[in-house]
Amino acid sequence: MKKKVLTGAILLSFMVGNFAVHTPAYAARLTRKQKKEVSYLETAKSSFESKQYDLAIEYYTKAIEINPNNAESYAKRGNARYLAGDYKNAVKDYTKALELDPTRENVYYNRGIAKSSLSSMDEVLEDYTKEIEINPDNVNAYLNRGSIRVQLKQYDDAIADFSKAIELDPKSELAYYNRGVAKRNKADYKGAIADYTKVIELDPSNVDAYNNRGVAKFYLKDYNGAIADYSKVIELNKTFKRAYYNRGIAKLGIKKFEDAILDFTKEIENNPKNDSAYYERAIAEAKLEHYVSAIDDYTKAIELNPENAEYYAERGALLSKSNGDLKKAEQDLNNAIKLDSKDSEKYLTRAIIYCKRGLYLAAIDDLNILIKIDPNNTQAYDLRSYAIKSIMAEQKK
Questions:
Q1: Which terminus of the chain is more solvent-facing, meaning fewer CB atoms within 10 Å of its CB: N or C?
Q2: Within 13 Å and on the Cβ side, how many CA atoms surround 383?
Q3: How confident is the model at residue 394 (pLDDT cuts 50, 70, 90)?
Q4: Contact 209/203 with Cβ under 8 angstroms?
Q5: pLDDT tens, 225-269?
Q6: For the whole model, what pTM was predicted?
């Protein structure tokens, strides 16, 4: 079974833009209607800054009723609506602001963020691109466009965006971190490690960077390096999601089975519903020939996730290996093959069980399927030959 490790997520950032400031001299030149608009805008601004977004929306609306051609009012009401969770109407406000002022900075950017929970990623990407055309120094626009490109699996373009963000802001932890995520998705683990290391240099307490660097090291089979990073994660945050699990997986890589069991046990204490932790602990226990405990853990993993073919296959294989209940082992492999009928190893395991039970014809059927899937599997030919000879020997009796 492919080992699962937890990685950090791509992060987005929101930019509200600057509020207009009116001087006393400016205010003296305004008409009564304009002064009323300014008063509403100032109340809206104050409400926004105190995070009273509904009130801010109310006063921006009053200002817009007086002056429906003020792009800034729509842009600011869009910000308030976004932060109030009304993304649909926030997009409408940003769109109106852009109709009135197509070159206004940050509005395409903020509309892109608002759209991210409503529209296709391609539309969001277009808004970030338009923002960059208007304001090529907007670091956050590159960061967020890169983040969307990661989601679209456009990793090279994402890396280019994060690199541009780093060029504009060499101390941007987020740019290095997200570029590391993109590189890891490209299987450029060394490049990812370099970026996560830079994040750690900028912020030695960045738990996510240690965790993701550990993941990259794990994939390079630098298990000791991964263990060191996961240990740092635990030192910084003992409740970090799956930290003990990830470290346990790395310890399996260097065959420290007892230590791995301790980590999986700690993971289970923190997250009793982590079926993978029971499964991996069972693997470690089986390596130490703690068969009863291993079977118990496989059983618990199956209870938590009855749709995982590997759990049934491993429990069945261990029952067979430890001379346990062969009928139950057979049933486990039946379930495993029902869930995953393309894995040749499962047919081999069931054929071994059939042979142990003296069901040679059934074993031969499984081995024929296995050979069709994997014609170069020498073990299948050897076992089939054994099954045929066993049938012939029985016929001579």
A1: C
A2: 28
A3: confident
A4: yes
A5: 999 999 999 999 989 989 999 999 999 999 999 999 999 999 999
A6: 0.81
Contact between residue 227 and residue 251 where contact means Cβ atoms under 8 Å apart = yes
Alpha carbons 241 and 267: distance in angstroms, whole number: 9
User: How far is residue 5's CA from residue 221's CA, in Å, rounded to a whole number?
Assistant: 13
Does 9 score more than 70 pLDDT?
no
Pick the CATH number of 332-397 from 1.10.1370.30, 3.40.50.11290, 3.40.605.10, 1.25.40.10: 1.25.40.10
Spatial CA neighbour of 183 closest among 221, 142, 215: 215
Cα dist from 370 to 63, 262, 287, 357, whole Å: 74, 37, 26, 19
Q: 183: closest CA among 207, 214, 160?
A: 160
Rg from Cα positions in the chain: 30
Q: How many helices (H) and strands (E) does the chain have?
A: 22, 0
All structural domains of the chain with their residue ranges: 332-397
**What is the distance between the alpha carbons of residues 339 and 175, in angstroms, rounded to a whole number?**
41
